[in-house]
Every structure is written in C-alpha cells, then in structure tokens.
Amino acid sequence: MSEPVIRVSHLKKSFGKQEVLHDIDFSINKGEVVSIIGSSGSGKSTLLRCINLLEIPDSGTITFHGQDILKGDLNGYRSKVGMVFQNFNLFQNKSVLDNCVLGQRKVLKRSREEAVAIAKTHLDRVGMSNFLDKGATKLSGGQKQRVAIARALSMDPEVLLFDEPTSALDPEMVGEVLEVMKDLAKSGLTMIVVTHEMQFAKDVSDRVIFMDQGVIAEEGTPDEVFEHPKNERTKHFLSRFRQTTLEKED
Ligand code: ADP
Ligand code: MG
Predict the structure, then answer these.
(1) pLDDT of the residue at 76
(2) Nearest ligand to residue 167 Cα
(3) Is 69 in a helix, a strand, or coil?
(4) What is the pLDDT of residue 243?
(5) 4: how many CB neighbours lie within 10 A of its CB?
(6) Less crowded by CB within 10 Å, the N or C end of the chain?
(7) Are 212 and 233 a contacting pair, CB within 8 Å?
(8) Which of 11, 20, 212 most suits a substitution to test ligand 1, by most atoms within 8 Å of the C-beta?
(9) Is 90 exceeded by the pLDDT of residue 94?
(10) Test site for ligand 1: of 46, 58, 167, 195, most ligand atoms within 8 A of the Cβ
C-alpha cells in the first residue's frame, strides 16, 4: 500500500497534568474520508488541532507524505492541511469574497486577480456566488460555514479537517452544509471529519473512528462500527443515537 498522506504515531498531549491524548496511532490515505465520533471531552478536537499543529504534541510523530512535520516547514505544511471550525472563524468585518481571497494573497502570494478567480470557483461550488460582496456577519450560520469551506478550499489543501462543522447550526441549516461535504467527499478530497451527525458518518465515511477518553477505542468501516461494534463503550455511545438519527432514515 502507498504511503499515507498523514501518519500519526504514539501521539501524546497533556494540558497541565491532564493527559488528553494517550498514545494515538492514526493514518489517512489519499482520497479517504475518516469520521471521528465520540463523547464531548474525549479528545477529538485536540487530535485535529495536533494534526493541524494548532497544538504541538508532547511526544510522538506526525508525518506528511513520510516527512516529519515537527522537524520541517511548519507553514508549508499548515497550508496543505485546511481546517473548518464549529464556529466558522470567518473574518467578521470582511466580505464573503475577501474571506476567501486574503489567505491566498498572504500565504500563497497569489495575485489578487488569480485569488479572486479561485475564490469565485469555490464559492460557486458551495452555492455562495450570489453573496460575494456581502459582509460575513450578515450571513446565516449555514451560509457562513459554506463560505468557511470555500475559504479552506481556496488554499488548495491536500487534506481538509472538519471539527463539528454543523454543531453550531440551526437544525434547518445542517443539511446544506452536509450536502457540500458529501460533494467534496465524492470528489476525492481527503477529509477527517469530527461529527455528531451519525447518518453522515455512516453514509459518507470510508472509515469511522470512535474516540473515548483520549484513545481510539474502536475503528473500522461504517458497517463494522455502527452495525457490529465490539467495544462496550462504542455500543453505549451509539445507543444514545439509535433512537434519533440512525433509525429515522433507515
Ligand atoms: P472533544 O473535542 O472530544 O470534546 P477536546 O479535545 O476538546 O475534546 O478536549 C479533551 C480534553 O482536553 C477535555 O477535558 C478538555 O477540557 C481538555 N482541553 C482541551 N483543550 C484544552 C486547553 N487548551 N487547555 C486545557 N484543557 C483543554
Ligand atoms: Mg471538540
């Protein structure tokens, strides 16, 4: 098998005396969509933040195409791994278009003309091309998140990380964001998605990871994890969703 795009080995991270990630091993191949599920506080965001180097691991290694990122060009790596946050993190006082242009200008040194053209392509893809001049604060939550996704795509990431991208949305806006993410998954983008949307994880992922108390407690295909979980904690966690999300659409 070819070298994974990202490989995390023996990753540990503590905050003060609390070890939040204990010896995590994880890798993702090109074009793979991996969903990470688990209770609040299990370390999902910390894992994503370590992968994106928003947090520096205490020990362990993270490689990108076989290169140790902690020893290499951090900024080059960061521009290859995009992130979409729960709370959008848009530039509040900027337009939709500028939100998607500024990073390209600053980090990738693209001309304004080129950056605008690329931004427009991605804003069109997420259905936001009619809002180019609108201020970020004027948008609905679903629109903000679609702009945040277009902004991330405008940087040509090889991997896109999503940290509960629909958790801050009103229920009626969740679908429009999940549709965009489904489309990206189909297009072959490599994605790691922390989510509580179990139906999405089930339908779209190649692989599902269940995190519990700072470890990967279970990992497998959606069928293995959702239909035949082995770990008692996975079973318990999933039982909380059975009545609602999964059965509704089955
Ligand atoms: P999840 O995303 O699964 O809800 P997190 O990775 O956010 O979990 O958090 C895991 C644990 O680490 C929690 O106990 C949380 O309180 C703690 N934690 C996360 N970030 C910090 C931080 N910056 N400082 C101190 N503790 C943190
Ligand atoms: Mg989190």
Answers:
(1) 84
(2) 2
(3) coil
(4) 57
(5) 18
(6) N
(7) yes
(8) 20
(9) yes
(10) 46
Report DSSP state, residue 70.
T
Average pLDDT over residues 66-85: 90
- Torsion angles phi and psi, residue 237, rounded to 5: -60, -45
Token pair belonging to 6: 């990202």
- CB atoms inside a 10 Å sphere around CB 152: 22
DSSP string, 160-223: EEEESTTTTS-HHHHHHHHHHHHHHHHTT-EEEEE-S-HHHHHHH-SEEEEEETTEEEEEE-HI
Whether the Cβ atoms of residue 6 and residue 51 lie closer than 8 Å to each other = yes
Residue 210 to residues 32, 99, 203, 235, 236, Cα–Cα distance (Å): 17, 33, 16, 10, 12
* Model confidence at 230: pLDDT above 70: yes
User: Angle CA(59)–CA(62)–CA(68) in degrees, nearest 5?
Assistant: 105
Rounded Cα distance, 138 and 48, in Å: 29
Instruction: Return the ligand 1 atom nearest residue 55 CA.
Output: 23
Rounded to 5°, angle at Cα 26 from 25 and 29: 150
